[in-house]
Design brief:
By secondary structure, this protein is an alpha/beta fold. 46% of the residues lie in helices and 19% in strands. It has 3 domains: 2-149, Rossmann fold (3-Layer(aba) Sandwich); 153-319, Arc Repressor Mutant, subunit A (Orthogonal Bundle), CATH 1.10.10; 327-420, no CATH class. The chain is built from 18 helices and 14 strands. Strand 13 and strand 14 form a beta hairpin.
C-alpha cells in the first residue's frame, strides 16, 4: 500500500506542475458542455501526442477529478485496482470523476471501467494502443462511450503555437519546417532538439510497448523493419518483399510485426482502392508514418524527399478524419501503373481525388499528375480533382485524349488551414 501511495503522491505533484505549463488549445473538441452524462470519454492517440495534457486542462476548467497514470510498472504490478482507487480517493477527496491514463497497461482494464461506470463514477481514459479504436471497444465498454482523437499537432495547431500573424510566404515556409520536424508538442513548446527527442521516443515506444509487451526475442528484426518503412513512406509494400529486404524469417512474422507498429501508433497502412473486395485485399498497401518527425529522426536516407514528406502530412490529416468516422481513403493505381495518391470516399460515394506534388513547374510532371487524375475520374466517376502543391494555385481545365476535367491546384498550407 505504501508503494502505491508514494507513486500516486508523486503523480499528483506532477499533475499540479502540468497545470503551470504552457498549453496550446487543441482543435480536438470534446463535443460536450459538461460531464453530467454517463459517457466514458476514451481519448486515444500516440504516446506523447498530448492526450493527458488535453484531458487535464479541460478537466481543470470543468470538474474536480482524481488521476491515476498506469504508465508506471509499480501500479501495473499492483494488480488490485480497489487498492489504487482507495489511495486515489484519499488523495483527491473521493471525486466522482477519474482520469485513468494509459489504461491499456492495466490487465482487464475494460472490466474495471465497466464496474466503475456501474458504480456511478464518471471516467476519462486515455490509451496509446489502437486496439482501443477497434470495434471491440463497444464490446469492452458495455455502457455508452465517446471517442476522442488526439494526434501530434496538426499544421493548424503548429501555426497556432507560433503565436504570431504570418504572411502567405511565411506560412509556406512554416509548412516546410513542419514537414521536417513534425507536430509532437514537447520539442516545439520547449524548444528542444527534435531529432534527439523523437529518436528516443520512437525507440522507447518500440521497446517498451512492443518488444517487451510481446516478448520479441530478436528486437533488431522489428527495429530494422521500422527503420526501412520510415525510409520509404508513401511506397507500396508486400509482406513477402519486406521479409526479403529485412532478411526476416517469414512474411507471417513481418505481418505480425507491422501490426504491432500500427497498434502502437507509429505507422499506418493505406489500401489500394478497388470496387472488388478480393482485389483490394490482394493488392499491395502503402505505408505512412504517424508523424513526419519520426521520418526525419529515423530514416536512413541522407537527403529528405520533400514530396514524400508533404504526401505523409496529407495522409496523416486524412487518417485522423477517417478515425473520426468522417471518411474512408485509399490510393488508386491502374494496370498501366498510373497512380492517384488519395481517393476520398464519404459513405458510398467517391467525393475527391487528390494528388500531392511539391513542384508542379516541370511540364512532364504536371502532365503525369493530370493524366492519372483524369483516368481515375473516368473509372471512379468523381468530379472533384485536386493537386496539392507547394505554392502554385489555379483552377484549370485539362484534357487527355478528348476527356476534359476541371482541376484545382491548391498550396498544401492553404488546404490544411482551410476549414472543411
Amino acid at each position: 500500500m505504501n508503494n502505491v501511495r508514494n507513486v500516486l503522491v508523486q503523480q499528483k505533484a506532477e499533475l499540479e506542475n502540468r497545470f503551470k505549463e504552457l498549453y496550446i488549445e487543441r482543435d480536438t473538441k470534446l463535443k460536450i458542455d459538461s460531464v453530467k452524462d454517463n459517457l466514458i470519454r476514451v481519448i486515444i492517440g500516440p504516446r506523447r501526442a498530448g492526450k493527458s495534457f488535453f484531458a487535464v486542462h479541460w478537466l481543470k476548467k470543468n470538474a474536480k477529478f482524481g488521476y491515476i497514470n498506469f504508465d508506471d510498472e509499480k501500479l501495473v504490478a499492483a494488480k488490485d485496482f480497489d487498492e489504487l482507487l482507495a489511495v486515489a480517493d484519499s488523495l483527491y477527496g473521493s471525486p466522482e470523476l477519474l482520469l485513468l491514463d494509459e489504461i491499456q497497461n492495466f490487465d482487464k482494464w475494460e472490466l474495471v471501467a465497466n464496474r466503475l461506470q456501474r458504480q456511478g463514477r464518471k471516467l476519462f481514459i486515455t490509451g496509446s494502443n489502437s486496439n482501443l479504436l477497434s470495434k471491440e471497444l463497444a464490446t469492452h465498454l458495455t455502457g455508452r462511450h465517446l471517442q476522442i482523437i488526439v494526434f501530434p499537432f496538426s499544421f493548424k495547431e503548429f501555426i497556432k503555437q507560433q503565436n504570431q500573424e504570418l504572411t502567405t510566404t511565411q506560412k509556406s515556409e512554416k509548412l516546410f519546417e513542419y514537414s521536417t520536424h513534425g507536430g509532437y508538442p514537447e520539442p516545439l513548446v520547449k524548444n528542444i532538439n527534435h531529432n534527439e527527442y523523437l529518436s528516443t521516443l520512437f525507440d522507447s515506444i518500440l521497446f517498451k510497448d512492443i518488444v517487451k509487451r510481446y516478448k520479441i526475442r530478436k528486437p533488431n528484426a522489428i527495429e530494422n523493419l521500422a527503420q526501412f518503412l520510415l525510409s520509404n513512406v508513401g511506397s507500396e509494400y508486400s509482406f513477402q518483399r519486406l521479409a526479403e529486404l529485412t532478411k526476416s524469417k517469414s512474411a507471417h512474422t513481418i505481418q505480425k510485426y507491422l501490426g504491432y507498429l500500427e497498434e502502437a501508433f507509429l505507422l499506418f497502412s493505406l489500401k489500394r482502392f478497388s470496387f472488388k473486395t478480393r482485389e483490394q485485399l490482394a493488392s499491395n498497401k502503402k505505408i505512412y508514418a504517424i508523424d513526419n518527425g519520426f521520418i526525419s529522426a529515423k530514416s536512413t536516407k541522407s537527403t529528405p524527399d520533400t514530396g514524400k514528406l508533404y504526401e505523409n502530412i496529407v495522409a496523416v490529416h486524412l487518417k485522423k478524419a477517417e478515425i473520426d468516422g468522417k471518411l474512408d481513403f485509399y490510393y488508386w493505381k491502374n494496370p498501366q501503373h498510373e497512380e492517384v495518391d488519395f481517393v476520398i470516399k464519404e459513405r458510398t460515394k467517391i467525393t475527391k481525388l487528390i494528388q500531392v506534388c511539391y513542384d508542379i513547374s516541370n511540364p512532364n510532371t504536371k502532365k503525369r499528375e493530370i493524366r492519372a487524375l483524369i483516368k481515375a475520374k473516368q473509372e471512379l466517376k468523381c468530379s472533384e480533382l485536386i493537386v496539392l502543391t507547394n505554392d502554385y494555385e489555379a483552377e484549370e481545365t485539362a484534357e487527355w485524349y478528348g476527356k476534359k476535367a476541371k482541376i484545382k491546384f491548391i498550396p498544401l498550407w492553404k488546404w490544411l488551414l482551410t476549414k472543411k
